[in-house]
Design goal:
The chain contains 6 helices and 15 strands. The chain is of the alpha+beta class. An 11-stranded antiparallel sheet has the order 1-2-5-6-8-7-12-13-11-10-9. It has a two-stranded antiparallel ribbon with strand order 3-4. Strand 10 (228-231) and strand 11 (240-246) form a beta hairpin. The N and C termini lie far apart (42 Å). The model has no long low-confidence stretch (mean pLDDT 95).
């Protein structure tokens, strides 16, 4: 089947019944998926949700994840395409983008957890993708987001990427994940509360007004094109933090036009390459998509992506210690305007 923007989608299942989806360019040959020969048993995830009575936050307990694959040798990576002697999560011998249900999911029953493999090349990073390859990942994100949002047990869809051992990545293959939460995550609840207050007072969307203010002020803008702006937020928490906003108020990735998807791929690769040029190596980061909620307060949300790194210098990490972890009060070693100026110079 084809996604709305023309990428070719091929659905299959793994030997334990989990869904696997291949995304190929629209003009690629029709894919006939190979069989998963591993004979895996059906997964039995153990997931429990509890609500903290002090904060109202939902805490997820997924004890089965403690046995998930941890830092395997490069020649035994479960996200590589299958090779002789190494059957993996992806049975085909090559792929462009592959998405599958996580074998060790954080959510099961209500909600869902998926893995998004950006490329079959184990040694690449998202930064190394061509614009066409990055654009295909956007298609996969959009397609999965739309499908997950349609599920009755999902309240929030969160595509994200963790990169680097400093972040806690346990599989080095270039990949991200998608969490389809059966509840609204705490950060989204906080942002929506602020957006609601702003709407009541100003009569406008908080995120749109933040974008407009940043574009007008200008000193924290990293790069921009016709449809997107990348900037360091005025009150950045992290040593390196950049937000990418579309110029149009949209709810989710699936709502982006073809041109907006093209322009995102171009700008995102630009920003990631600036990240890697900051200290001359691959900067550890978290890339976090913020979509609007599936149902509640959907009009208050505003699609954007937040990029953050915990590295505060070439050889120093920002640890969340007493104030950050104990009180949730961030104390930063870097000034947003200085970070923005440095990142602009990296690309000049």
């Amino acid at each position: 089947m084809n996604t709305p923007r023309g990428a070719r989608r091929t659905d299959t299942t793994l030997s334990d019944g989990r869904q696997l989806i291949y995304y190929d360019p629209a003009d690629a040959p029709v894919r006939v998926p190979l069989e998963d020969t591993r004979g895996l048993l059906a997964p039995k995830p153990q997931v429990e949700l509890r609500t903290d009575p002090l904060t109202g936050d939902v805490i997820t307990y997924a004890t089965h994840r403690n046995t998930r694959t941890y830092l395997p040798p490069a020649d035994q990576c479960p996200l590589d395409a299958t090779k002789p002697g190494n059957p993996t999560e992806i049975p085909d011998h090559d792929y462009n983008v592959a998405v599958f249900e996580n074998r060790f999911p954080s959510f099961a029953g209500p909600g869902r957890a998926e893995v998004v493999c950006f490329t079959s090349d184990h040694n690449k990073s998202f930064t190394d993708l061509s614009q066409g390859e990055a654009r295909l990942v956007v298609e996969a994100w959009a397609d999965r987001s739309a499908e997950l949002r349609a599920r009755p047990d999902v309240e929030y869809v969160f595509p994200f990427e963790n990169r680097g051992s400093e972040i806690g990545v346990t599989l080095s293959h270039p990949h991200g994940q998608i969490y389809a939460y059966p509840f609204l995550p705490p950060r989204i609840n906080t942002l929506l509360a602020r957006a609601r207050e702003h709407q009541e007072v100003a009569g406008s969307n908080l995120f749109a007004d933040v974008l407009a203010a940043e574009r007008k002020e200008g000193t924290r803008i990293i790069a921009e094109n016709e449809n997107w702006t990348a900037f360091v937020p005025e009150a950045a928490r992290w040593p390196v933090e950049v937000h990418l906003y579309p110029h149009r108020h949209l709810a989710g990735i699936a709502d982006l036009s073809t041109t907006e998807r093209d322009d995102f791929a171009q700008l995102y690769l630009d920003v990631l390459r600036r990240f890697d040029g900051l200290y001359g190596d691959r900067l550890p980061y978290i890339a976090a998509w913020h979509e609007a909620p599936v149902r509640v307060d959907r009009e208050l949300g505003y699609l954007h992506l937040e990029l953050l790194s915990i590295r505060r210098a070439a050889d120093k990490i920002k640890y969340l210690a007493g104030s950050e972890s104990g009180m949730g009060a961030f104390i930063s070693d870097t000034r947003p305007e200085d970070v923005a100026e440095t990142l602009r110079k990296v690309g000049s």
